[in-house]
Specification:
The complex is a heterodimer of chains A (397) and B (136).
Chain A: H1 2-21, H2 27-41, H3 47-64, H4 66-72, H5 83-91, H6 95-149, H7 153-172, H8 180-199, H9 217-231, H10 239-249, H11 254-279, H12 285-293, H13 299-331, H14 336-355, H15 359-376, H16 385-396
Helix pairs in contact in A: 1-3, 1-13, 2-3, 2-12, 3-11, 3-12, 3-13, 4-6, 5-6, 6-7, 6-9, 6-10, 6-11, 6-13, 6-16, 7-15, 7-16, 8-14, 8-15, 9-10, 9-11, 10-11, 11-13
Chain B: H1 3-27, E1 46-58, E2 62-69, E3 72-79, E4 92-102, E5 105-115, E6 130-132
Parallel strand pairs in B: 3-5
Antiparallel strand pairs in B: 1-2, 1-4, 2-3, 4-5, 5-6
Classes of the chains: A mainly alpha (397), B alpha+beta (136).
Chain lengths: 397, 136
């Protein structure tokens, strides 16, 4: 059994690298595929080995998915907000440091998951209904606080609203598959790539230096613990909303913000399994698949999955840094303006293939809103209205 | 390009795009297909079926309906929200739902459901009997 689980974890690591690095490939897709072939697989493999594969893949993914976001400007849901601070560091020749910061956040998150899970198991059944009741108001408060803290309050509100309306229309369109792909790629990715293309940006030679002690690390981790814990058990919320919520707790510089993003992403994924154990309700795609493969999710299962997370996370941390070095070495050699053009073409192609032709309208509208945000000098954080506003409506209505 | 011109173009494109998406979301919905036509190639896509409820049960977080038409039957999953719904056997329904799979069986995760004969349990409180069941 041990060997079976170990092999499953290693397979999960390999697939997690693939889902993390390639734009448009989501772990939920792999999870759904695995569930659909699980009746055949379960004749040869134990259910817990299949679940170990999923957990290993999911945790590895949360480490690696920062790379396309920072180096290529192609975001995934969990990393959309990392594009701007990450890109700023990339333009200063510090792309490797940006990846390293997010990975440190993710690594710290693994230990956070272990430490706070007992507390979570104890408190969650008591406070779950309360949070569910007031979540809309918590999110309105967090978004409102971030808008009011901005120097250009009206413009921040305008962009929050435009992206929110885009999110509502996109998520309600039955013509589009995987609606987050065109939505987030437009708002956060292609808008930045268009600006790079227009400005003919050049990526300077990347160095591998990094700051040993980043100011605000403690604040970033504390905020990520609070926000990650909250969003991991509530329906409709994920790492992106967690990052917005976490940013409203404390003011962070861009480096600390990258730590927060890495940490929230991994905490949300990891605590999703603790939530599955406590509430018997899955809160993300991988937990849904876990619930479908295992008939009964026990404390022993949870403890084993924690061990898988630590093992896979430790290896994923090293793999991420290694891969970031390869990316960083190659980036300064390429013509970034041309690369931006080709990546834009790739995003368009992915949207057509994965989400259907109507998604191009979402992509174009998102790109226009993203460019508007950059041209007006407003923080891209407010564009998370695309996910926050639909969730607020979900909880209110 | 000057920033002011860029702002104007981006704002106009954003508003035009939002307006177009609004029109599309209000106008287009999937064509009705036979239940037997729903297959695994449609995973993650939305389809519309019409049929009769042959059984309905309730779990902690879901309503699970069995819907039949002349070509076959399919399970329709409805995620519970604040409003309580009730269904009865023999009721005619139209369902728009996302095709998914559970334990090797194809099912629909309902996005909208319309009671054709009567409006029951608040399902049809919006518009012409369509009830929003899922945010996205």
């Amino acid at each position: 059994m041990f060997l079976e689980i170990l092999l499953a974890v290693l397979a999960g690591l390999i697939i997690g690298i693939f889902t993390g690095l390639f734009p448009g490939v989501h772990i939920n897709l792999v999870a759904i595929m695995l569930v659909s072939i699980s009746p055949a697989l379960l004749k040869f493999v134990a259910p817990i080995a299949l679940v170990s594969f999923l957990v290993s893949m999911a945790i590895t993914h949360t480490f690696l998915d920062i790379l396309p976001s920072i180096f290529l400007g192609v975001p995934k849901e969990e990393t959309a907000l990392s594009i701007l601070p990450g890109h700023e560091l990339l333009l200063q020749g510090r792309g490797y440091e940006a990846v390293r910061l997010s990975s440190i956040g993710s690594l710290a998150a693994l230990f956070v998951i272990l430490i706070i899970s007992p507390l979570y198991i104890w408190l969650l059944p008591k406070y779950y209904p309360l949070f569910q009741e007031y979540m809309a108001f918590i999110l309105i408060g967090a978004a409102g606080f971030l808008i009011l803290r901005d120097e250009k309050k009206f413009l921040a509100l305008l962009l929050f609203s435009l992206s929110g309306i885009l999110g509502i229309f996109t998520l309600s369109l039955t013509l589009i598959k995987q609606p987050l792909l065109p939505l987030l790629s437009g708002l956060f990715g292609s808008s930045l790539l268009m600006m790079s293309f227009i400005k003919k940006s050049r990526i300077p030679r990347q160095n591998f230096e990094y700051e040993e002690k980043v100011q605000g690390t403690r604040g970033a981790l504390t905020s990520s613990i609070l926000s990650g814990s909250i969003v991991s058990f509530l329906p409709g919320l994920g790492a992106a909303q967690g990052a917005v919520l976490g940013s409203s707790f404390t003011k962070l510089n861009k480096k600390a913000f990258l730590i927060l993003l890495g940490a929230v992403s991994t905490i949300t994924m990891g605590l999703g399994f603790t939530a599955l154990y406590v509430l018997s309700k899955p809160r993300h795609g991988v937990a849904v698949a876990t619930g479908k493969i295992l008939d009964y999710f026990s404390l022993n299962h949870l403890l084993l999955l924690f061990a898988v997370m630590l093992f896979a996370g430790g290896i994923a941390f090293l793999l991420t840094l290694k891969t970031a070095k390869i990316f960083a070495r190659q980036m300064s050699k390429v013509n970034y303006s041309k690369l931006s053009f080709w990546i834009l073409g790739l995003i368009v192609l992915l949207c057509i293939l994965v989400s259907g032709p109507v998604s191009l309208l979402v992509l174009a509208t998102g790109t226009a809103i993203g460019i508007l945000c950059s041209a007006l000098g407003i923080r891209k954080m407010h564009l998370m209205g695309c996910l926050i506003l639909p969730v607020i409506l979900y909880f209110l209505i | 390009m000057k920033t002011q011109a860029l702002v104007k173009i981006a704002l106009a494109t954003s508003l035009l795009g939002l307006f177009s998406l609004y029109i599309i979301s209000e106008t287009f919905e999937p064509k009705i297909i036979l239940i037997s036509e729903v297959n695994e190639k449609m995973f993650d896509s939305y389809v519309r079926i019409s049929g009769q409820i042959s059984s309905a049960r309730e779990t902690e977080g879901l309503y699970i309906l069995q819907v039949n038409d002349s070509s076959g039957k399919i399970e329709v999953i409805i995620y519970k929200e604040k409003e309580k719904l009730s269904f009865s056997r023999g009721q005619e329904v139209e369902v728009i739902g996302k095709v998914s799979e559970f334990r090797g069986k194809i099912q629909l995760e309902a996005a909208d459901i319309r009671m054709m004969e009567s409006e029951i349990g608040g399902v049809g409180e919006t518009g012409e009997g369509w009830g929003e069941l899922e945010g996205g």
